[in-house]
Amino acid sequence: MITQEFKIKGRICSRCLKVLNNEFSATGAKVVDIQLGKVVINYSPKKINRSIIEQIIVGNEFEIIVSEEEILGEQTKRWIINYIYNSDLSTNLSSFLSSNIPKTYSVISDNFSNVFKQTIERYALLLKIERTKELIEMGKLNFTQIAYLLGYSNLSGLSRQFKNETGCTMKMYKEKMGVRTPLDKIR
C-alpha cells in the first residue's frame, strides 16, 4: 500500500470534499485525510495507479498543485475566506494572515500577487461583495447590519464598493437577485 498526499487547488467547500471522497472510495482507494486544499490517499498500486487518482482530481475540475508558491497562495486564499466568512473582522486582514500563516505579511502578500495576479486586498474585496450578495439574499439583515458585519464603519463604504463591482446598487440587487459568483471562481 502507498500513502500519498495531493495538494489541490480550488477545493473550498464541503460538497467538493464529499465528491472527491466518494470517487476515491469507489476506486478502492482509502481516503486517510481530506480537507480544504489537500487529500491523503492510501491505495494499492496493483489496483489503482497515480494517473487514475490524478484523473479523478482533474476530472472534477480541480488542479493538483506542486510548487511551494502555489501551495502558499492556496493556503492564503483559504485563510482570507475564513476571515471574511467566519471571523468578527475585528483584527485587520494582514494581522490575521500573519498570525495564521508562518510567514511575514510581506512574503504572503508578494506571493499571493505573483500566483494570482491580484492583491490580497482586491481578492478580499471581491469576497466581501459575494458575501454581501449572500446576506442580501438571506434577507435576515438590513444593509447597515451587513456593512457592520463585514467590517465597514458605515453603509456608504460598502454601498460604493458594491456598486463599483456589480454595476448595481444593493437595493437593485435585492429586487432582482442578480448572479453570484462561486468562491472558487473569484478572480
From TrEMBL:
Kindly provide the name given to this protein in its UniProt entry. Uncharacterized protein
User: Does this UniProt record's set of keywords contain Ligase?
Assistant: no
Task: Return the SUPFAM superfamilies for the record.
Answer: Homeodomain-like
Q: Which UniProt keywords apply?
A: DNA-binding, Transcription, Transcription regulation
Q: Write down the Pfam families for this protein, in alphabetical order.
A: HTH_18 (PF12833)
A GO term for molecular function: DNA-binding transcription factor activity
Identify the PANTHER family for this entry: ARAC-FAMILY TRANSCRIPTIONAL REGULATOR, HTH-TYPE TRANSCRIPTIONAL ACTIVATOR RHAS
InterPro entries for this protein:
Homeodomain-like_sf (IPR009057), HTH_AraC (IPR018060)
Lineage from the top down? Bacteria, Pseudomonadati, Bacteroidota, Flavobacteriia, Flavobacteriales
- Look up keyword Iron and say if it applies: no
